[in-house]
Write a structure and sequence with these properties.
Strand content: 5-15%
Transmembrane segments: 84-105, 162-181, 201-219, 240-258, 270-289
Largest sheet: 6 strands, antiparallel, barrel
Number of helices: 19
Number of strands: 14
Protein name: Integral membrane protein TmpA
Helix content: 40-55%
Distance between the termini: 39 Å
Keywords: Membrane, Transmembrane, Transmembrane helix
Oligomer: single chain
Shape: elongated
Number of domains: 3
């Protein structure tokens, strides 16, 4: 079909398509000026004799309006530069800068300064680690998701941004590294003037600083995306090494402080009174706890196509949870939204859908294993926050339909009313009849767009159409970062509440 602007395609009248019991419609004409809407509807019959013809016009009756009339630079600052993630990031940075000014003003002597600096570094490290703990993530989500639907929409829109808590994690980690820079500089200065003559303490401070710097550098979004496996290994093994080095450092620092001129207490006395000692103890526990829940899950693979695989797991996990699975626990972990199996396979209770997106997913689809490892607690996903809205538009692409099945499978009386827009190549052939049926059971008028037949749709335009048709309160997008950012910005810049996973959620 000749290339044509997606909006023009949307505005074209659709030709009559054939519906064969939940099948995806195919166009009756290849004319570029007219196309059929890539969708299907549930048929009451269950055999080929139930073939019906039905006109499925696709007319954009609600054209995507211009962005709100605020200054463009301000709009970009609000929705692109100063996202909630970055606002939280900035808040933590500013708090630490204020703390640094206060500490430099109040503490002059070597002993007190070292204690306060190490405590500030440990405090930030504790916050960074705590914000990645499964139980803390789940508590935050449970508290915010308990917001009644009767709460004013403005408040619910703000509370839903809870999943951008990663801004606190990353900024606290950077601040911890910055405090270690300050600690290393101070130790070096005191080494040069003769106040501190402990070479091991100084050397360990620089080793620790080097490790933290490596963790922070490889966590940068672009580097993290390009070298994900390297990022994950450095985060894990450098983090463990940091814990060992840090323990050694605070013990040696306590010893050095006890031997400093004018010291009145022993190293043990100083150690147990250092906030760093207790904060590091909590961090060490946090490091061990997820691995205490290392489990092997039986998996029954169900090949959906050459591009997608459904793993049926014996996991006993409730709705709206994400699990990390791996076939090599010390190497790499991958997160997938887990949904309850409507039709158990080999005693399974839950499923995940895996689509081809990289080396690991390609390997798993080609050669699935009979078991996979999981660790820690399952964590709440972004879609869990959709429960505080009365109605939503669900936008997804490809295997993003997997997480959405949690919402779609709920009792209609307990979940928000939902409209679905799912764009994927050959949805029926790639993901199977069962998933198609699940989508239409929740939204009989769901929009399923076959990109192989019709090319890529104008995602914001179709989303806006469904939003205006349904009068929904919010839009949730489950897709790759590019599409998620495109649709979320298009909606937010027009005053609509829109949410989607961010790189660090």
């Amino acid at each position: 079909m000749a290339a044509k602007d997606p909006v023009t395609l949307l505005e074209s009248e659709a030709k009559i398509g054939h519906i064969i019991d939940h099948q995806i419609c195919t166009p009756t004409s290849s004319n570029a000026s007219s196309t059929t809407f890539a969708t299907s509807k549930a048929s009451s019959a269950s055999s080929l004799s139930a073939i019906k013809e039905k006109s499925l016009p696709l007319l954009i009756t609600y054209p995507l309006p211009a962005e709100k009339l605020d200054e463009k630079k301000f709009r970009l600052l609000r929705h692109v530069v100063f996202t909630v993630y970055r606002r939280l990031f900035t808040l933590v940075i500013m708090a630490n800068i204020i703390g640094l000014v206060f500490i430099d003003y109040r503490h002059r002597d070597f002993t007190s300064y070292i204690k306060v600096i190490s405590s500030a570094a440990s405090g930030n490290l504790f916050v960074a680690v705590a914000m990645r703990q499964d139980y803390i993530i789940n508590i935050l989500c449970e508290v915010f998701a308990a917001t009644p639907k009767s709460t004013p929409l403005r408040i619910r829109r703000i509370l839903t941004k809870v999943f951008e808590f990663g801004g606190v994690h990353s900024s606290a980690a950077i601040c911890s590294t910055a405090w270690f820079v300050r600690l290393a500089i101070n130790l070096t200065m005191n080494f040069e003037n003769g106040t501190l003559r402990d070479i091991p303490t100084l050397a360990l401070a620089y080793v620790l600083l080097l490790l933290f710097t490596a963790i922070v550098v490889f966590a940068h979004p672009k580097l993290r995306q390009k070298t994900h496996n390297t990022f994950e290994r450095i985060h894990r093994f450098a983090g463990w090494t940091c814990s060992v080095v840090f323990w050694t450092l605070i013990v040696l620092t306590s010893k050095a402080l006890s031997e400093a001129p004018g010291a009145e207490h022993s190293a043990a006395y100083i150690l147990i009174r250092l906030p760093s000692f207790w904060l590091l103890s909590l961090n060490t526990i946090h490091g061990f706890v997820p691995w205490l829940r290392l489990r092997k899950l039986e998996a029954t693979p169900e090949p959906l196509s050459s591009h997608a695989l459904r793993l049926h797991l014996k996991a006993n996990i409730a709705d709206f949870y994400t699990i990390r699975i791996s076939d090599s626990p010390l190497s790499e972990w991958h997160s997938f939204a887990c949904f309850v199996d409507a039709i158990p396979r080999n005693g399974s209770t839950n499923s995940v859908v895996i689509s081809r997106a990289g080396d690991w997913t390609s390997k798993t689809i080609a050669n699935p294993k009979p078991f996979y490892w999981t660790r820690g607690l399952p964590t709440r996903g972004v879609l869990y926050m959709s429960l505080i809205f009365k109605s939503v538009v669900l936008v997804t692409t490809g295997s993003g339909i997997g997480p959405c099945l949690n919402l779609l499978a709920m009792d209609p009386s307990t979940r928000p009313s939902v409209r679905v827009f799912w764009s994927a190549p050959n949805p029926l052939a790639t993901f199977g009849q069962e998933i198609i049926d699940n989508v239409y059971a929740a939204d009989p008028n769901a929009v399923i767009w076959d990109t192989k037949q019709f090319g890529r749709p104008d995602m914001p335009a179709v989303t806006w159409q469904l939003l205006k048709e349904s009068g929904a309160e919010a839009v949730f997008v489950i897709s790759n970062p590019k599409v998620t950012g495109l649709v979320v910005y298009a909606m937010e810049s027009r005053g609509v509440a829109a949410y989607g996973p961010i790189f660090d959620s």
